[in-house]
Write a structure and sequence with these properties.
The complex is a heterodimer of chains A (155) and B (272).
Chain A lengths: L1 E6 L2 E6 L6 H8 L18 E4 L2 E4 L12 E3 L12 H8 L9 H14 L5 H7 L11 H10 L7
Helix pairs in contact in A: 2-5
Chain B lengths: L6 E4 L3 H11 L3 E4 L5 H6 L7 E4 L9 E4 L2 E5 L4 H5 L2 H6 L1 H7 L5 H4 L4 H7 L5 H8 L3 E6 L2 E6 H4 E3 L2 E2 L6 E8 L5 E6 L9 E8 L2 E7 L6 E2 L1 H8 L4 H5 L16 H19 L1
Parallel strand pairs in B: 1-3, 2-3
Antiparallel strand pairs in B: 4-5, 5-10, 6-7, 6-10, 8-9, 11-12, 12-13, 13-14
The chains are: A alpha+beta (155), B alpha+beta (272).
Bound molecules: flavin-adenine dinucleotide and FE2/S2 (inorganic) cluster (2 copies).
One FE2/S2 (inorganic) cluster (FES) binds next to loops of chain A.
């Protein structure tokens, strides 16, 4: 089936099999390997991207479900040279160690900040409940997201 | 994990969804948010030949005032139920509990209709609709019918919906009194190990339980005890009566019974 998806602002048309997952379409067909697959069972959030501006787990969305919509991946928000403020906050606050969960964390944080522009610590912790990190213990991730939202972490 | 191959068709309206279901017969399955169905398909526990995607049927995504009730379109996403002003004002338990389903990513995709139609006893919203004495509206080849929530949940992942029917609307009463939802789990974003929903409806107190049987169930003995004037503590002590909880990695059947009594007590205390 022909699908047309605006990926990071660029209209992309491809013929996909209906069973292709959005994450595989992004990684394998479009070469956008910033979006990771952690669990493949809808649990870890490593595959989080924005679908029409809202966070979704791209391992649990079919590419055909994204037809006609916009998808934003980590590649679409900033670069090493010009980081998005949320990326910069993760760097500044050491919100990552191995970095595997980070693209998903950053995309989930963007969606969270859209819904709660100045989140409380509880809102950040609950807002990131769909994203698992095996390294950091979350503390610095929460601090980074709060700083990016302009609130000061109390923890 | 990749689902087995299937054909994909998209419905633009409720009518079209019903005729596509009729056309494709037993091999077809509806796809709403996909957050119960796609994980099952990835594990190849479900291998439908045709998916009828109703995810874009905008006419079934709404929250409407319907007199004494509030009507919610089946394709309304958990997130939209969570932030609905109409529900927050008049049926707060539904929006509150929609906000406890899974995590934000799940709530951006999953729908109330998918959650009800899936019929998982561990899900949150079926028990809430059951406690509220809600009504489910289904549309099939021969028209619409209304099904009382008390007749809807038939067995594990089994409902009163026929294979060729589409759930179109969920109706819940406007609440004047208190309500409470107690969800017990150990990990973020998880399903309830046991849950209890309680609400004052039409002068009585209704209570329903999550994950205490093959379907969500009303805690009838608690409701009767309260109606007979029993104290909260005495009524809650019978919360597990007539239930058949399962045992799994999270909890033994006895522990689930214990949780049901404790959670019902907390819920009733909160309802006041
Ligand atoms: C990580 C994760 C955590 C979750 N945590 C929770 C939780 O804590 N609590 C909870 O309650 N749920 C939880 N869920 C499930 C979630 O709520 C699902 O969104 C919901 O159960 C199904 O809704 P859906 O729209 O995604 O349905 P789908 O997956 O698209 O469909 C589910 C089933 O219902 C049928 N169906 C869908 N819509 C209709 C309709 N309108 N008419 C007739 N049949 C229909 C489909 O054919 C399918 O058989 C979780 C899911 C995930 C992935
Ligand atoms: S890979 Fe999608 S949630 Fe883990
Ligand atoms: S930084 Fe390693 S998993 Fe989060």
């Amino acid at each position: 089936m022909k699908v047309s998806i605006a990926v990071n602002g660029e209209q992309q048309q491809h013929d996909v099999e209906p069973r292709v997952l959005l994450v595989h379409h992004l990684r394998e067909t479009l070469g956008l390997t910033g979006t990771n697959v952690g669990c493949d069972t809808s649990s870890c959030g490593a595959c989080t991207v924005l679908l029409d501006g809202e966070s979704v787990k791209s391992c649990t969305v079919l590419a055909v479900q994204a037809d006609g919509r916009s998808v934003t991946t980590i590649e679409g928000i900033g670069s090493a040279a010009a980081m998005h403020p949320v990326q910069a906050a993760f760097q500044e606050h050491h919100g990552l160690q191995c970095g595997f969960c980070t693209p998903g964390m950053v995309m989930a944080a963007l969606s969270l900040l859209e819904e709660h522009p100045k989140p409380t610590e509880a809102e950040v912790r609950e807002g990131l409940e769909g994203n698992l990190c095996r390294c950091t213990g979350y503390h610095n991730i929460v601090a980074a997201v709060m700083a990016a939202g302009g609130s000061k972490a109390t923890a | 994990m990749i689902p087995a191959a299937f054909d994909y068709v998209r419905a633009g309206s409720a009518d079209e969804a019903v005729s596509l279901l009729a056309q494709h017969g037993d091999d077809a399955k509806l796809l709403a948010g996909g957050h119960s169905l796609l994980p099952l398909m990835k594990l190849r526990l479900a291998t439908p030949g045709v998916l009828v995607d109703v995810g874009r049927v905008a006419e079934l995504s709404y929250v409407r005032d319907a007199g004494d009730e509030i009507a919610v379109g089946a394709l309304t996403r958990h997130r939209d139920v969570e932030v609905s002003d109409a529900l927050r004002a008049d049926c707060g338990i539904l929006s509150h509990v929609a906000g406890m389903v899974g995590d934000p990513q799940v709530r951006h995709r999953g729908t109330i209709g998918g959650s009800i139609a899936h019929g998982d006893p561990a899900s949150d919203l079926p028990a809430v609709v059951l406690a509220l004495g809600g009504t489910l509206v289904a549309q099939g080849p021969s028209g619409q019918r209304e099904i009382a929530a008390s007749d809807f949940f038939r067995g594990f992942l089994e409902t009163a919906l026929a294979p060729d029917e589409l759930l179109t609307e969920i109706r819940v009463p406007k609440l004047a009194g208190g309500w409470s939802y107690q969800k017990f789990n150990r990990r973020a974003q998880d399903w309830a190990i046991v849950g209890a929903a309680a609400a004052r409806v039409n002068g009585g107190t209704n209570v329903a339980l999550v994950n205490m049987a093959a379907t969500p169930v009303r805690a009838t003995s608690v409701e009767q005890a309260l109606a007979g004037g029993a104290s909260v503590a005495d009524a809650a002590a019978s919360a597990d009566e007539g239930t058949e909880p399962s045992a799994d990695l999270n909890a033994s059947a006895d522990y689930r019974r214990h949780l049901a009594r404790v959670l019902v007590r907390r819920a009733l205390d909160e309802v006041g």
